[in-house]
Automatic annotation (TrEMBL):
One Gene Ontology term of the molecular function aspect: ferredoxin-NADP+ reductase activity
Binding site for FAD: C20, D39, Q47, Y52, V92, M128, D294, T335
Chain ranges of the FAD/NAD(P)-binding domain: 11-299
Name of the protein: Ferredoxin--NADP reductase
Keyword Plastid: no
Record InterPro entries: FAD/NAD-bd_sf (IPR036188), FAD/NAD-binding_dom (IPR023753), Fd--NADP_Rdtase_type_2 (IPR022890), Ferredoxin-NADP_redctase_2 (IPR050097)
Enzyme class at the top of the EC tree: oxidoreductase
Subunit structure: Homodimer.
Length: 349
């Protein structure tokens, strides 16, 4: 591949901006290391923000309960003192090792190049692509009346919205948008939903007091008005009748399809679809490339956010030692270390 001048550089490139990738930035920052953070999605947060922003999480140490959305917001606030460079909406498609162990060049899908000394892969299940609504012609409304995620709830204010799907993401957003929408209609192919029981109870209560609707069926077609805007869906219902449902917008939550092909292309030792790592440093089979979170594999691996946080800490220490030519990194604590407190921007009286 032809060499090109890097667009930006940092000590470490973190591939993936989910909770583990964000916490990796924090641990690197404590070591005085700068980070470039890449994600194929145009927002940080990974599956937490894409699939179940309102879902409660109960196993983060010291936090009895927190929503996935709030966890991401807290992590973003926590890493802000380190001013990471975020490259969102651009998937990393190539990793090229530079001569004499001088680091790597990462190339994104738009052709831009970034220079880093080390890499941490925190890509979770891989780049996530929404499972599409397969109704011919509907794609023309994408970004206008057809959406696969919610960026700004105000975009849906006073609209009649059909939410398609029966999992956590569909129920979470149906509940979140109900106060701002003119009307919410949940459409699922089965009468049996797959969302959390509490979400189902809350949505059923809304239906019972006529504040929301639920239909069993599949979208088979649509109608548009004279201006070419979406005006209705045709729904093949469980009783075999095709019904017309007037809507302004459609939100589709059929799940996400992971793409891990890039991991295979990077010549890393794999265990099925995960990257093999050592548990002392979480380095992969390729020197200078580390992997944390759901994308990695080692004996006893558990796919928990808190496990990924632990892995991020050890990876940061290992990278810091490499940056200092193997010199041991002294153990310091944020409660007492003036160096760490200065990096955090903490003022201690």
């Amino acid at each position: 591949m032809a060499q090109q001048n890097p667009t930006a550089s940092a000590d470490v490139g973190v591939i993936g901006a989910g909770p583990c990738g964000l916490f990796q930035v924090f641990e690197l920052g404590l070591q005085g290391l700068s980070a470039l953070v890449f994600d194929a999605q145009n927002r940080s947060g990974g599956q937490c923000r894409q699939l179940y922003p309102g879902k409660p999480i109960y196993d983060i140490p010291g936090i009895p309960e927190i929503s996935a959305e709030q966890l991401i917001a807290n992590l973003e606030q926590q890493i802000s003192p380190f001013e990471p460079q975020l490259v969102l909406g651009h998937e990393v498609v190539n990793i090229e090792r530079q001569p004499e162990n001088s680091g790597f060049h990462l190339t994104t899908a738009d052709g831009r190049c970034y220079a880093v000394r080390f890499i941490v892969i925190a890509s979770g299940a891989g780049a996530m692509t929404p499972v599409p609504l397969r109704v011919a012609g509907m794609e023309r409304f994408l970004g206008r009346s057809l959406f696969y995620h919610v960026e700004d709830p105000e975009q849906h204010r006073d609209r009649v919205i059909a939410v398609l799907g029966g999992g956590d993401a569909a129920l979470d957003w149906a509940l979140a948008l109900q106060p701002v929408a003119a009307e919410i209609i949940l459409i699922h192919r089965s009468g049996r939903l797959r969302a959390a029981a509490d979400s189902q109870r809350r949505y059923t209560a809304l239906c019972e007091n006529s504040s929301a609707q639920q239909m069993q069926g599949q979208v088979s077609g649509y109608e548009q008005n004279a201006a070419g805007e979406l005006s209705a869906l045709k729904v093949q219902c469980a009783d075999g009748v095709v019904r017309r449902v007037a809507v302004d917008q459609v939100l589709v939550f059929f799940g996400m399809s992971p793409d891990i092909l890039s991991l295979r292309d990077w010549q890393l030792d794999m265990e099925r679809f995960q990257v093999k790592v050592g548990t002392d440093t979480f380095e992969t089979s390729s020197e200078g490339i580390f992997a944390i979170g759901d994308c990695n594999h080692y004996p006893g691996k558990r796919k928990l956010i808190l496990s990924g946080f632990h892995e991020a800490a050890l990876a940061a220490f290992a990278i810091s030692e490499r940056m200092q030519d193997g010199k041991p990194v002294p153990m310091e604590y944020t409660t007492t270390s003036p160096t760490l407190q200065k990096r955090l921007g903490v003022t201690v009286s």
